[in-house]
């Protein structure tokens, strides 16, 4: 069953400002990049991403995701595990509106931000969420320092996916797995 999730519940920050060398090492991990590409393939085959994707009702969004967003929450099978995934289509540009995205959802699509519930032990401290940001073509996006956005993205940094979610106590990370 696919559920539309509120913007507040899954707001993430993927723009990274200044980061130390140690934080940069944690940004891009080969295994996470490989998993992100496998995840994209599954999401595309299930029509959760891509030009022929399922469309959720667009709504006004918040930074850094874009002025209008569409969000799907469902279960998906990757590597024999069926678990929770949240997919946000992020739309922006001049004159963007709920109506323009509803009428033509691919025209101003900027990116997809995805949260995938990994196995226990992946990142227990952050409820084992895997983060990824893809451009509209399905390629992993990069932060300003050139690291691909996938995995435990910016773990321990002041900005990034995990920092935004834990800033509110991390309650959304726990409740997002409830069906």
Domain tally: 1
> Per the principal axes of the C-alpha atoms, what is the gross shape?
globular
Main sheet attributes: strand count, strand direction, barrel closure: 6 strands, antiparallel
- Give a count of the beta strands, DSSP E runs of length 2 or more: 6
Gyration radius (Cα, Å) is: 15 Å
User: What does the average pLDDT come to?
Assistant: 78
Output the number of helix runs: 5
End-to-end CA span? 9 Å
Would you kindly provide a written description of the structure presented here, covering whatever features stand out?
- The chain has 179 residues and is an alpha+beta fold.
- It is built from 5 helices and 6 strands; from the N terminus they run ααβββαβββαα.
- It has one domain (8-175).
- The chain has helices at residues 21-27, 30-45, 98-103, 161-166, 171-175; strands spanning 59-60, 68-78, 81-91, 109-117, 129-135, 150-151.
- Strands 1-2-3-4-5-6 form a 6-stranded antiparallel β-sheet.
- β2 (68-78) and β3 form a beta hairpin.
- The longest helix is centred in the first third of the chain and has 16 residues, at 30-45.
- The radius of gyration is 15 Å and the shape is globular.
- The model is unreliable at 1-26 (pLDDT under 50).
Q: Mind sketching the topology for me?
A:
Layout: H1 21-27, H2 30-45, E1 59-60, E2 68-78, E3 81-91, H3 98-103, E4 109-117, E5 129-135, E6 150-151, H4 161-166, H5 171-175
Antiparallel strand pairs: 1-2, 2-3, 3-4, 4-5, 5-6
Labels describing this entry:
179 residues, alpha+beta, 22% helix, 23% strand, disordered N terminus
In short, what is this structure?
The chain is of the alpha+beta class and 179 residues long. The chain is built from 5 helices and 6 strands; from the N terminus they run ααβββαβββαα.
């Amino acid at each position: 069953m696919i559920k539309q999730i509120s913007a507040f519940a899954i707001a993430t920050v993927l723009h990274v400002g200044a980061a130390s060398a140690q934080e940069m090492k944690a940004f891009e991990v080969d295994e996470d990049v490989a998993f992100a590409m496998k995840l994209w393939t599954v999401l595309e085959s299930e029509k959760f991403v891509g030009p022929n994707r399922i469309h959720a009702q667009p709504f006004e969004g918040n930074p850094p995701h874009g002025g209008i967003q569409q969000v799907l929450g469902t279960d998906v099978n990757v590597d024999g595990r069926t678990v929770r995934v949240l997919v946000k289509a992020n739309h922006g540009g001049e004159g963007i509106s709920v109506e323009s995205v509803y009428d033509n959802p691919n025209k101003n699509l900027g990116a997809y931000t995805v949260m995938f519930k990994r196995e226990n032990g992946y990142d227990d401290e952050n409820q084992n969420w895997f983060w990824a940001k893809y451009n509209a073509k399905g390629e992993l996006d990069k932060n300003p320092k050139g690291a691909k956005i996938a995995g435990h993205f910016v773990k321990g940094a002041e900005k990034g996916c995990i920092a935004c979610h834990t800033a509110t106590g991390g309650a959304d990370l726990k409740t997002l797995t409830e069906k």
